[in-house]
Design goal:
single chain, Glycosyltransferase 2-like domain-containing protein
Length: 54
């Protein structure tokens, strides 16, 4: 569902991206990949299952 919403936002002109990881499960590799693939001046990390306390 999240990927669909991000796709709709992109079509609406918003500059957002999502990385869908189907097999990797750990948070540290997700953070590293996201930061490596980030473009622009800002990167946003969302904790969607509320397991990580920031």
């Amino acid at each position: 569902m999240t990927a669909r919403v991000v796709d709709e936002l992109r079509r609406g002109g918003y500059n957002v991206r999502i990385i869908v990881r189907a097999t990797e499960r750990d948070i540290s590799s997700a953070m590293v990949r996201g930061l490596r693939e980030a473009q622009g001046d800002n990167a946003l990390r969302m904790d969607t299952d509320l397991q990580e306390h920031m």
